[in-house]
Design goal:
The protein has a three-stranded antiparallel sheet with strand order 1-2-3. It has a three-stranded antiparallel sheet with strand order 4-5-6. The relative contact order is 0.12. The protein is globular, with a radius of gyration of 24 Å. By secondary structure, it is mainly alpha-helical.
Length: 430
């Protein structure tokens, strides 16, 4: 079968470029030779029409509302799997057998503690520092404590670094939370599963016994699964760009954390909950909806719609059910904030204005409600997102490092500045 090509005509000259086809999804025009042949760049702010890499990890079809990790639909993984198994899948490409799962679980569990000196690191932050500022700093600082896993040319060291990051990020996030509320740090417990261990490190205190609620632990595990990876989003692209310079893995993940901090990305669930607090009570919803519909008001509906999904976010469907289970389990159905959320959800799913614009509740909307009900302050939401997404960042980073086509990232630009001009000494300037 002859290779399909795309023809580009500029003036009286024509150029041909290969068209590449993936397993699923849109075809891609290979323009790597564009500048060499034409002397021109493409212009694509936000890279919304640019495939910066090829990958085997995650696939999204925004029009159909599909999300797959390594070919497995997200709803199946959420229903039948657990977070550590999903971690294995993302890292190694296939689901583990029983022996592989046991070994992986043990390796992660045995690396959950932080170097004891790192406890002192936290004291350098103000008590009112945002947890994301703390997490970003501490993750980057891991490179100062684990020198034996920073050589990216060594596959063994890359593997050790990967396991360490997955294992230690819940401990780091939990310590950031404990530091913010002035409570003592809680060490990990090897007899607890990943989600339960995180909850224990966040909410247990020395003064009394803490028992992890299995419904809450399952909801926490679901949040981790649903946020584990999401193709070439802003933070993942940041990790890949940082990694393209051969930076150590801890620095790359810290770069991802920094990017995720932005309210347009990882801060979306925090913004959604702040919106609910702004509304206050259910009786104020109609007034708020009217302001949303009025474009001149500048009021946006947070937690609804998605940059990629033009259909119902498949993660939101899973999270919606988990949200109901958590609220029932905790008996907080009468919480005004959560009542606002439920009524706002109903309006968005039935109001023609939102339906025609495909403004469905997204995963950030429901995860914010769950985290609020569990007892996390809004400042922790993005940090928990970072915890969940770490495995995706690592999988993407490992894939990039092993790619023989890897090149340092170097986007170009359309320059609108001053043309060449001569320097005039200060004494001669008017």
């Amino acid at each position: 079968m002859p290779e399909t090509k795309a023809k580009l005509t500029i003036g009286d000259k024509s150029y041909e470029f290969p068209i590449l086809t993936g397993t699923v999804g849109p075809q891609v025009i290979d323009i790597r030779a564009l500048y060499g042949q034409t002397g021109m760049f493409t212009y694509d702010p936000g890279f919304t029409s640019t495939a910066a890499t090829d990958s085997t990890i995650t696939y999204i079809d925004g029009d159909k509302g599909e999300l797959m990790y390594r070919g497995y639909p997200i709803d199946q993984l959420a229903d039948k799997s657990n977070f550590l198994e999903v971690c294995y899948l993302l890292l190694y490409g296939e689901l583990p057998d029983k022996a592989q799962m046991k070994d992986f679980d043990q390796r992660v569990t045995k690396h959950t503690m932080l170097h004891e000196q790192m406890h002192l690191f936290f004291r350098g932050f103000r008590r009112d520092a945002h947890p994301m500022a703390v997490v970003c700093g501490v993750v980057g600082a891991l490179a100062a404590f684990y020198h034996d896993s920073t050589d990216i040319t060594d596959p063994v060291q890359r593997e050790i670094a990967s396991i360490r990051l997955i294992a230690k990020i819940p401990t780091i996030v939990a310590m950031a939370y404990k530091y913010s509320v002035g409570q003592p740090f809680v060490y990990p417990k090897n007899d607890l599963d990943y989600a339960s261990n995180f909850l224990n490190m966040c909410f247990s205190v020395p003064a009394e016994e803490y028992k992890v609620n299995p419904v809450i632990a399952r909801a926490m595990d679901l949040i981790f699964i649903l946020h584990a990876d999401h193709e070439q989003n802003a933070s993942t692209s940041t990790v890949r760009l940082a990694g393209s310079s051969d930076a150590n893995p801890f620095a790359c993940i810290a770069a991802g954390v920094a990017c995720l901090w932005g309210p347009a990305h990882g801060g979306a669930n925090e913004a959604a909950l702040n919106m609910l607090k702004q509304i206050g009570t259910p009786d104020k919803i109609p007034e708020f909806i009217d302001r949303v519909k009025d474009k001149s008001s500048g009021i946006r509906l947070m937690g609804f719609g998605h940059r990629v999904y033009k259909n119902y976010d498949p993660r939101a469907k899973v999270m919606q059910q988990a949200c109901k289970q958590v609220l029932e389990e905790l008996g907080v159905e009468n919480n005004p904030l959560l009542q606002v959320a439920q009524q706002l959800e109903h309006i968005a799913l039935t109001d023609e204005y939102f339906i025609t614009r495909k403004l469905y509740p997204n995963v950030d909307f429901y995860s914010g409600i769950i985290l609020e009900a569990i007892g996390f302050p809004t400042s922790m939401f993005t940090a928990i997102f970072a915890l969940s997404r770490t495995v995706g960042w690592i999988a993407q980073w490992k894939e990039m490092i092993a790619d023989p086509q890897k090149k340092i990232g170097r986007p170009r630009q359309l320059y609108h500045g001053s043309p060449a001009r001569d320097y005039v000494p200060l004494s001669a300037r008017k």
